[in-house]
Amino acid sequence: MKSFVLTGLNQMEMRDVPMPEIKSPADVLLKISAVGVCGSDIHYYKTGRIGSQVVQYPFTVGHESAAFVEKTGPAVKKVSPGTLVAVEPAMSCGRCDQCLANRPHTCRSLRFLGCPGQAEGCLCEYIVMPEECCVPVAEKITAGEAALSEPLAIGYYAAQNARPLKGADIAILGCGPIGLSVMICAEAMGAGRIFATDPIPERLAVAGRNGACWTGSPCECDVVEKIARAAPRLMDVVFECCGQQEAIDQAVDLLKPGGTLMLVGIPETDRVSLVIDKTRRKEICIRNVRRQHGCLHPALALMGQGRLKPGFMITHRFPFAKTREAFDLVGAYAGGVVKAMIDFAA
Known about the structure:
By secondary structure, the chain is α/β, with parallel strands linked by helices. It has helices at 39-47, 97-100, 143-162, 177-188, 201-209, 223-230, 245-254, 276-281, 296-304, 323-331, and strands at residues 2-8, 11-16, 27-36, 49-50, 53-54, 64-72, 84-87, 90-91, 111-112, 126-130, 134-136, 170-173, 194-197, 214-216, 235-240, 255-263, 285-288, 314-319, 339-343. The chain has two domains: 2-136 and 309-343, Quinone Oxidoreductase, Chain A, domain 1, CATH 3.90.180; 154-288, NAD(P)-binding Rossmann-like Domain (Rossmann fold). α8 links the parallel β16 and β17 (285-288). α3 (143-162) crosses α4, α3 crosses α9 (296-304) and α6 runs parallel beside α7.
């Protein structure tokens, strides 16, 4: 089968690799239909690492995917050949202290698609996954939308764990797919006014059309001053979704005393800092978001009901053969890209 593999910094190529095989009775052979290009994929493409996770070449990335069931192991009961499924990329052991404490997303032996040292990714024609990672989707959900359910579940998890959002004023710093996922999930949970920032005009326009009451670029104005003028009591919750030190500083300034800072973005640097005087005096609650936990099913259910509609995030589509072009586009933030989707049927 064909697979796109990273071969060096800013280098990737299509290669022939062995076809995966069902080895466990609960395994499912999946034929990939759509893969979303994620910011973490770009980290690996451009820098070869995220923190301590360092790529050993060659390596296949990709974890946002939808696929059709090709074949199942004898113990599989919930899916059958031909079923379109959203793929949960995290495979927990179910035995460690974290799993037993109902924290499978921080499993001590977690295997995650496209994560160096854990599991090869899904930018290939076929993969094998445990049945529990294959979630059937409603008939009206397309493969591209099903692939979006992975970042959408992260947005749902972040919004769910912030604090009760009903009526809350919130800011979202960074309007990429994760920030936009947070935005539509927070809106569905009853958030009040939503303020959004991003340096890319096209992303601000997308945010403005899909829930934000105010948008602004930190490159063009003092976003803290502008938001504070519109909301003098400041924000109940700020979601930092871009992994930038500047945004973390803005978040602290934007929060009211007792507010909550949700750190969702992945920084490219090893360290970030806080102005502790402001953070302490405001008694700001800081919470990190580690992917998601148990939110893929509810996100897909809301998509099936039409209450969450993330399809607007797909701004570019590429056939599998042009995967490298998709990575270069996303890596350069070019063409107003929000989400580039690799369409295997194209």
